[in-house]
Structures are given as C-alpha cells and as structure tokens.
Amino acid sequence: MRIKSISRAFMLVVTMLSMVLFSASCNKEPEGGAKGGTVSGVVKDSMGDPIEGVTVTARGVDGSALTDAEGRYELKNVPAASVVITFTKTGYQTANVTVPASRFDSDGNATANATLNFANAMIRGLVLDGTSSNAPLANATVKLSNADETTVTTGADGRYLFENLTIADYTITVSADGFIETSVAVTESMFNNEDKTAQVEDVVLTKTQLLPGLTINDLQKADKWYYNEYRGGGNGEQYPRWDWSTCFMGSLNFYGDWSEHGEGTCIEISGDATKPANPNVLESYVWGSKLITEDNKIMTVRARTFGSRDGETTFGVVAIDLSAAEPSAVAVGEKVKTASEDYADYYFDFSEFIGKEVVIGLGLYRAEQSDQGKHLAIRRINFTSEKMSGWDWIYGTDVPGLEGWHMTQEIVRSTMVQTSREFSGITLSGSSNQERYQSWRTNNHIGYAWNFTVVSKDTEPFAGQGFVMKTNGGSSYVVNTKVPEAYFYTKLPIAAGSNELTFKLRNFGDNFTVFKVTAITEDCQYEHLAPKSNTAVECVEAEDGCWKFKNNRGEPTESEVGLYADFVYDLSKFNGKNVIVAIGVYKGEENSDENKVCFHSVTLK
Q1: How far apart (Å, rounded) are the C-alpha atoms in residues 515 and 517?
Q2: Which pLDDT score is estimated for 25?
Q3: For the chain, what is the radius of gyration of the CA atoms?
Q4: Cβ neighbours of residue 597 closer than 8 Å, sequence gap 6 or more
C-alpha cells in the first residue's frame, strides 16, 4: 500500500512538472509558431523628411529601437505574428502601425514605414484696426478651424498664437465687436521653415464693407491692372483688334454675376428677384488695383446695355485708397443710368489719386428691387491721360522708332511693374471662353499677366500646345520686319539674380517663323535683343533685329517640354531698371502661310 502511494505521488509530481514545462514552452512560442523576427522601415514627417530619434517599440515585446539620421530603424526579437509597432517622439503625434503575420517573410523579416505628424507647430499673427490707422487691435477673437475649434484672444499688441498643432491646412477666423468678421487661409506650405511656424499675414478689421463680399485683406491682394487697356466681348468691330480671339477682359477678377457675350464682357444683376434694392452698393463688379499717374488718370469705359430687354441700367466706379488712415469706397464721378443699345464712352477722372495705387471697382447697382437680370456689356476699359472715344487706338505719343506698334510713351511710363516671374502659355481647362479665361488666372497665363497687342492679325489663344501668335497668310500678307503683326509685352524689374529671360517656343510646318524681342526703358529708349542661346532645330538672325527659327518637333503635350525650344536672353545690362519687354511675330518672308509662334512658358530668373 505504501509503495502504491509513493508511486502515485511520484506520478503526480511528474505530471505537474510536465504541465509547467509545457506552459513555459507555450509562453515562449508566439502565436503563429515563429519567434525572433525583425521589423524595419523608415519614419518621415508629413513634409516627407526623415525624422531622427524616433523611439520604435512593439507591443508586448521588451526593447526598442531609435531611428537614425535617415529615419531608418531595425527592431529585433519581434514575434513573427500580428504585432502593433508604436512610433513616438516628443513634438510629434504618436503613430501605431499593425504588422500582420502575413507580412513576415520566411526569414521572419517585415517592413513597417510610418509618417508622424508634427504636433509642435505654431501659427502666429497680428490683428489690426483698419479704422484707426491700422493700430493693433486688442481683445479680438481668433478661431482656428481644427477639430476643437480652438479660440484665442489677441493681446494688447494685437498678436495671437496657436501652439502644439499638427502641420495641416487651417482657416483663421477673426472677429471683434462692431467689426466685420474676416477669414484667412493657412496652408501646409506656410509651416515649411526651421521652427515649423506659420506666420499669417496681418488681418485688418474694418467696420464697413469696402466692396461687397470682400474684406480689406482681400482688397490688399487685388489683381493688379498693369496695363492701359482691357478689351472684352467677341463681335468683330474693326477686326482683328475687336474680336473674340484678341479680347481677354474675361480673365480679370469679377464678383457677382457676369458672362461673356459678343457685345462685351457683361456684368449682371442677379436674377434673384427677392434681393433688396441698394442703390449705393455695387452688386456685381470687376475689380483690381491700379497705380494712378499723370499718364493714366482718365478711365474710359466703352459699354452698352441690352436696351429694351433690360430697361435702364445703373452703373458706376468706386476707388479705395488702402493707404488712407480710414480706407473707404469713394465714388469716382457720377453714377451712369442708361438703356442705350449703342456703344458709348463714359469717363471717370482719378486725378485726386495720382501717385497712389488704389483698388477700383466697376459695376452695377440694383437701383430697384426689380432690376434683376440687367447687363452692362463692356468692350473696353482704358487708362490714359485724356478721354478716349470710339474704337480708336490708345491716345498718346509713339515711342520714337516704333511707329506703327501703337506703343505710346505714356504706356511705357505708366505700365505697372510685374510682380510675377513665371508665366504659362497653356490653357488648363474650360468648355467655354469664360471658363478658359478664368483658368488663365490659375497658372498665371501670359494672356492674363501680359498685354496682348494685335496690330494686324488675330491669334489662337486656346491652342492645345500653347498660346499661338501668327502672321497673315494667303494674299493679304505684307512682308515687314519693322512692325509686328501682334505682340505681347510686360514691364519687368531687372536686377542681379533676376535678369535672364527664357521663352519656351515652337512653331509648325516647314516655314521659318520670324520674331523679335525688344526692350524699352522707361525713358522710351529701345533695343532689339539677340538671344544668348537657343535650342531650336534651326535659328538664324534676320533683318531689323529679328530672328527666324524652325522648331516643329512633332505633337508635344504639356509634359513634353523638351519639344519646345528655349530662347534665353541676358538682360543684365538693364540691372536696376524697370524695362518693357515685348516679343512680336513678324511677316519676315514671302510665303502665303500663316507663320506661327507657340508659347509654352516664359520665365525670368
């Protein structure tokens, strides 16, 4: 009996020991039957830059790894089973990445990359009182468009600060008692600096709306009306200068209802019959910023209505001097009331603003509640030293030696200095002219940012391979290397580091295209320029400072920029000067074809 008891006790001990050993064996063996795997990868921030010093751990596993200067890590002894990898670093949001068992290869290796959002970013800004000479505005409420709609209040110095943010797009909304609420955008790119701080442009609050629908901050970013003439509409009065293909007013900035018609670019009163009348506030308008000088102080608007269809229409012009202690919308001249279907010229004198850059609004008033649907068809907006009339070319004195160009000395002096350095010739989108013109604003198209002057031949503004200037063909051509048949121009500030101009061009067919680049200084001295270099298939010097080239390399798309030729011009001799640069197409050879030059882009570097 005793022997049996001892035997049973021994067997019980063996069984218990076996269970302990089995249990230990199970604890050491991960689910899936694998152990000792390795997870590796790269950790980057939301801008795509590697992050050094990120701690990498696996849930339920002892030990950790740190990322190196390239953001790489290697975490060993990870069970080759479904596991959660955690990435942490001060100033960043913690990230978790699940690595399933299936991601481990036969050697027990798996890859897990991670992106950490910077969570220590900041947004700074300043709020100003537009009614008190832009003095700092204290106690303004500033709301951030994050999930918590975080709100702060400006201090006595008008400043505000948001901290501990991730890098993302935000909207800042600023309000204060008695002031008009204003919003500004903050984009991810604004955080792209060493301390990841977005510095927001100053927000100026006002107590009245200077132009309906626009804040003073919007007005400060107004498109510049660089040039002395803008033409709209599509009918062919005195073709080719007054034709749909040469009139690009539709690329300007409009507020409210507007449309393109043959009779003109039309500003319209909304068709909403419930809108109340407001005879003192523009309802729909075109607007921009203009530097006023002696050479451009008279604004001439050539326009008409749709007569009996609309009845009497009321329009007018306002100017806003943003440099004033208390900016306000000032009426320029008298309101105009007309029901005429005949084109007429209306004059607005800006003499009181000479020497200032002012925001201009030209638009319609809803004088009566029943005014819905009325139109003002604008064919031309001119800025000259005297009143314009009819379909005439801009009044003024020709630049000596450039007679026939219709480039006046007044134009040279008063054209505003271009602020951009890159321009496209590609129309991005649009199924109508109106949509295409507005798409030009998106990529700073030359048809929007430069002035197109048609002398004797229309153009192809929406050609798929770029804006096309061309010469006359058939029996109507006249060989002339002194006067262009059409040209673009703008005024560029030339300086060290910004004095090399590149035109990316091509042409079509087997004929040469003859063109010329001309520089005109503000004292109205001009010089025809030779390219420093070019990549055309053929390019030779022609008469009167012209050059002729062939560069028909198949049918390029926008991305195949190598099929265009680069013509590079050294403008360093003009360093420190503002210079009109014009590029024109000439009928330089006898042939009956339309000789074309196609613009892909223009760059000043």
Answers
A1: 7
A2: 38
A3: 34
A4: 468, 469, 470, 505, 506, 507, 513, 515, 585
pLDDT in tens, 125-148: 999 998 888 899 999 999 999 988
Rounded Cα distance, 525 and 531, in Å: 19
**Quick one: pLDDT at residue 197?**
95
Look up residue 583 and give its two tokens. Answer: 């590029």
CATH number of 422-604: 2.60.120
Q: Model-level pTM greater than 0.90?
A: no
Structural contact between residues 469 and 596, judged by C-beta atoms closer than 8 angstroms: yes
One-letter-per-residue 3-state SS of 467-523: EEEECCCCCCCCCECCCCCEEEEEEEECECCECEEEEEEECCCCCCEEEEEEEEECC
Question: What is the spatial distance between Cα 380 and Cα 527, in angstroms, rounded to a whole number?
Answer: 30
Q: In which band, very low, low, confident or very high, does the pLDDT at 110 lie, cut at 50, 70 and 90?
A: very high
Tell me the pLDDT band of 26, cut-offs 50, 70 and 90.
very low
Identify the CATH class of 229-395.
mainly beta
Provide the residue type at 52 as one letter: E
The 3 state secondary structure assigned to 19-41 is HHHHHHHHHHCCCCCCCCEEEEE
The rounded distance, in Å, linking the Cα atoms of 416 and 356 is 12
**Whole-number Å distance between alpha carbons of 350 and 296:** 8
Average pLDDT over residues 346-375: 95
Q: Are strands 451-454 and 547-550 parallel, antiparallel or unpaired?
A: unpaired
CATH number of 121-207: 2.60.40.1120
